[in-house]
Amino acid sequence: MLPVLSHFVIPAHAGIQPLLYAFDSRIPYVSARLKDNGLQWKETMKQPCVYLLASGFHGTLYLGVTTDLIRRIDQHKRNLVAGFTRRYHVHTLVWYEQHPTLDSAIPREKALKQWKRAWKIELIEQNNPRWLDLYPGLL
Length: 139
Fold this sequence. Notes:
The chain has 2 domains: 7-43, no CATH class; 49-138, GIY-YIG endonuclease (3-Layer(aba) Sandwich), CATH 3.40.1440. It has a 3-stranded antiparallel beta sheet, with helices on both faces. It is an alpha+beta fold. It has helices at residues 69-77, 84-87, 102-113, 117-127, 135-138; strands spanning 7-8, 11-12, 15-16, 20-21, 30-35, 38-43, 49-54, 61-66, 92-98. The chain contains 5 helices and 9 strands, in the order ββββββββααβααα.
């Protein structure tokens, strides 16, 4: 598993600017990967997704939709999103589904919100029976 840098320095004309998180909304989003001896920066592609987070195996579930899955999950993991996921410690990405447009992702999210909990658990366990965190595989 490759390490993820949580910040980087932006050079300035007269010194060094304060450290900014790579997921800061004020700067373009980039993710860092180690390649050989240097860093390779990769911009994310906007891909609408419906996703499920869990607090643990068969734990509390949270269903959401986003156009930038990596950034959104990072926000959940770092408790930058006020509300349900922060309050109940729901940070493990256990399932996601990519969509061609946001217009197809939103109805899917609304439909899944109507599902019974048992159906959501079955959906997760079809592809992730051990409820592993899928987030590291996205980086």
